[in-house]
C-alpha cells in the first residue's frame, strides 16, 4: 500500500534489554520487557514502513509482514546488528535498554561458589546510538532517555552527545512510566530543545505519538 504515510521508508527499531554474560548460566541484565519498542515497530509497520526490529531477550510477540525481527543477546551483538543495516534505513528509534558495561571475562564453565566474595570487573560497552549519530547522513535519529533525576538536562545532553533529532524522555519518578508497565509517560525534546510533555498513556498510544512525529518530519 503506497498511500500510507510511511510507505517507502525503512526504520531500524531497537527493543528490550541486553544480557551481558558472566558464565554459561548467568548474566547481567535489566528490567526492560521490550514492549515499548515492539509497540513502536508495529505502529510503524501499520503506517506502511518496512521495519527491522533488533531485539534483546524479550517475550514480546510481533507478527506483521513489514517487520523483520533480528534477535540478539548482548550489547555487542546489538551494536553489530544495528551497524549492519544502518546505511539502508531512513529512521532509527532506539528504545532498547542497553547495558553500559559488560563483564571483562566470560567464564567458559559455570562459576563455583568457593569464595565468600566475588568481584566482576566490567568493560564499557560502546554507545550504539552515539556511534550511529557520529556517522549519520540523512537518517532521522530518535533516542530514548531513561532518567531518575535532572531529567530534562540529562536528556538535552544526550541529544547533543548522540547527535539526535528527537529524544523521548521517560522518568522512573513518574508513576506508570518506564519498565515493564503497559503505560508510559514521556516528554519529547527535539534537537532545538523544544519541550513537549505528554500525558500518561498506554504504550501503544505513546508509540503512535512517536510515529506521528516521524510522519510530520517527512511532510
Ligand atoms: O521495554 P519496556 O519494559 O517497555 O520499557 C521501556 C523502556 C523504559 C526500556 C524505554 O522506554 C526506554 O526508556 N528505553 C531506553 C532505556 C535506556 O537505556 O536509556 P538511556 O538513557 O540509558 O540511553 C539513552 C539512549 O541511548 C537510548 O535510546 C538507548 O537505547 C541508547 N543507548 C544506551 C546505551 C548504550 N550503550 N547504547 C545505546 O545506544
UniProtKB/TrEMBL annotation:
Keywords linked to the UniProt accession: Decarboxylase, Flavoprotein, FMN, Ligase, Lyase, Magnesium, Metal-binding, Multifunctional enzyme
Start and end residues of each DNA/pantothenate metabolism flavoprotein C-terminal domain: 6-216
Domain of life where this protein originates: Bacteria
Involved pathway(s): Cofactor biosynthesis; coenzyme A biosynthesis; CoA from (R)-pantothenate: step 3/5; Cofactor biosynthesis; coenzyme A biosynthesis; CoA from (R)-pantothenate: step 2/5
Positions that bind CTP: 100, 110, 126-129, 144, 158, 162
Annotated Gene Ontology cellular component terms: phosphopantothenoylcysteine decarboxylase complex
Cofactor note: Binds 1 FMN per subunit.
Reaction(s) catalysed (UniProt annotation): N-[(R)-4-phosphopantothenoyl]-L-cysteine + H(+) = (R)-4'-phosphopantetheine + CO2; (R)-4'-phosphopantothenate + L-cysteine + CTP = N-[(R)-4-phosphopantothenoyl]-L-cysteine + CMP + diphosphate + H(+)
Example of a GO MF term: phosphopantothenoylcysteine decarboxylase activity
Cofactor: FMN; Mg(2+)
Annotated region (Phosphopantothenate--cysteine ligase), positions in chain: 11-219
Enzyme Commission number(s): 4.1.1.36, 6.3.2.5
Signal peptide interval: none
GO annotation (BP), single: pantothenate catabolic process
Chain coiled-coil ranges: none
Function recorded in the entry: Catalyzes two sequential steps in the biosynthesis of coenzyme A. In the first step cysteine is conjugated to 4'-phosphopantothenate to form 4-phosphopantothenoylcysteine. In the second step the latter compound is decarboxylated to form 4'-phosphopantotheine.
Family: In the C-terminal section; belongs to the PPC synthetase family.
Protein name according to UniProt: Coenzyme A biosynthesis bifunctional protein CoaBC
Organism: Myroides marinus
Gene: coaBC
Full-protein interval shown: 184 to 402 of 402
Amino acid at each position: 500500500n503506497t498511500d500510507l504515510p510511511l510507505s517507502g521508508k525503512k526504520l531500524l527499531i531497537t527493543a528490550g534489554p541486553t544480557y551481558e554474560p558472566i558464565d554459561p548460566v548467568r548474566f547481567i541484565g535489566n528490567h526492560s520487557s521490550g514492549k515499548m519498542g515492539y509497540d513502536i515497530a508495529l505502529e510503524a509497520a501499520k503506517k506502511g514502513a518496512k521495519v527491522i526490529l533488533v531485539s534483546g531477550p524479550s517475550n514480546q510477540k510481533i507478527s506483521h509482514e513489514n517487520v523483520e525481527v533480528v534477535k540478539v543477546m548482548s550489547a555487542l551483538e546489538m551494536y553489530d546488528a544495528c551497524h549492519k543495516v544502518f546505511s539502508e534505513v531512513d529512521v532509527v528509534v532506539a528504545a532498547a535498554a542497553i547495558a553500559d558495561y559488560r563483564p571483562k571475562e566470560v567464564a567458559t564453565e559455570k562459576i563455583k561458589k568457593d569464595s565468600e566474595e566475588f568481584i566482576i570487573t566490567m568493560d564499557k560497552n560502546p554507545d550504539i546510538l552515539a556511534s550511529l549519530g557520529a556517522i549519520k547522513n540523512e537518517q532521522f535519529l530518535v533516542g530514548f532517555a531513561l532518567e531518575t533525576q535532572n531529567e530534562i538536562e540529562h536528556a538535552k545532553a544526550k541529544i547533543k552527545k548522540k547527535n539526535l533529532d528527537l529524544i523521548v524522555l521517560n522518568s522512573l519518578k513518574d508513576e506508570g512510566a518506564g519498565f515493564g508497565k503497559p503505560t508510559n509517560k514521556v516528554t519529547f525534546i527535539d534537537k532545538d530543545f523544544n519541550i513537549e510533555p505528554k500525558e500518561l498513556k498506554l504504550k501503544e498510544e505513546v508509540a503512535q505519538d512517536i510515529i506521528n512525529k516521524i510522519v510530520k518530519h517527512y511532510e
